[in-house]
């Protein structure tokens, strides 16, 4: 299908994704129509189909690109002290989440709207990220500096806690990012039974 006269793939494609991400985060995937996305972008509904097959493909693409960006941004040094690695993970996750709040919200709240194949693909990416944190916890157990009762469950609980910052954080609020990260680091240390 041809693009609308005057539209440019390098502008319109990313704009569709940005507007859809914002609408899905604010109103929920199920409540947003292709017509609303087109109106937000400033194109006809038919133009959207030059860029994507359907709304499901758009959601899956948004979630997959978020997870790919998250995985690409995170790096770990397995040779470093496990507590230092955990602190770095905590601070990284909070900063990344605040900087990508809409994408984080979709990644956690809209999984239920994915088809089984799309869900499996996104879940595999999430599993890779969760494994990175679980590896830190297992190394902490091996070194004797951490004592989580169940590393897998502790991993899931920590990620949920850290991700939750996007639900209430507002720039210019009572606590700045550095202070929030410091408080969350204390909470994480307690959660893993840090020595």
UniProtKB/TrEMBL annotation:
<feature type="domain" description="HTH tetR-type">
    <location>
        <begin position="10"/>
        <end position="70"/>
    </location>
</feature>
<dbReference type="Pfam" id="PF00440">
    <property type="entry name" value="TetR_N"/>
</dbReference>
<dbReference type="InterPro" id="IPR036271">
    <property type="entry name" value="Tet_transcr_reg_TetR-rel_C_sf"/>
</dbReference>
<dbReference type="InterPro" id="IPR009057">
    <property type="entry name" value="Homeodomain-like_sf"/>
</dbReference>
<keyword id="KW-0238">DNA-binding</keyword>
<dbReference type="InterPro" id="IPR050109">
    <property type="entry name" value="HTH-type_TetR-like_transc_reg"/>
</dbReference>
<feature type="DNA-binding region" description="H-T-H motif">
    <location>
        <begin position="33"/>
        <end position="52"/>
    </location>
</feature>
<dbReference type="InterPro" id="IPR041490">
    <property type="entry name" value="KstR2_TetR_C"/>
</dbReference>
<protein>
    <submittedName>
        <fullName>TetR/AcrR family transcriptional regulator</fullName>
    </submittedName>
</protein>
<dbReference type="InterPro" id="IPR001647">
    <property type="entry name" value="HTH_TetR"/>
</dbReference>
<dbReference type="Pfam" id="PF17932">
    <property type="entry name" value="TetR_C_24"/>
</dbReference>
């Amino acid at each position: 299908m041809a693009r609308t006269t005057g539209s440019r793939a390098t502008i319109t494609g990313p704009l569709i994704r940005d507007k859809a991400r914002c609408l899905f985060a604010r109103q929920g995937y199920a409540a947003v129509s292709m017509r609303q996305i087109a109106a937000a972008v400033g194109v006809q509904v038919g133009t959207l189909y030059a860029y994507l097959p359907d709304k499901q493909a758009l959601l899956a693409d948004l979630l997959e690109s978020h997870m790919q960006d998250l995985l690409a941004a995170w790096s770990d040094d397995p040779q470093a002290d496990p507590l230092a690695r955990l602190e770095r993970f905590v601070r990284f996750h909070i900063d990344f989440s605040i900087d990508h709040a809409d994408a984080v919200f979709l990644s956690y709240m809209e999984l239920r709207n994915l088809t089984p194949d799309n869900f499996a693909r996104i879940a595999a990416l999430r599993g890779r990220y969760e494994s990175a944190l679980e590896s830190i916890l297992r190394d902490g157990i091996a070194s004797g500096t951490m004592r989580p009762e169940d590393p897998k469950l502790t991993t899931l609980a920590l990620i949920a806690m850290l991700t939750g910052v996007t639900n209430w954080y507002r720039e210019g609020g009572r606590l700045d990012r550095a202070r929030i990260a410091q408080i969350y680091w204390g909470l994480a240390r307690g959660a893993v039974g840090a020595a």
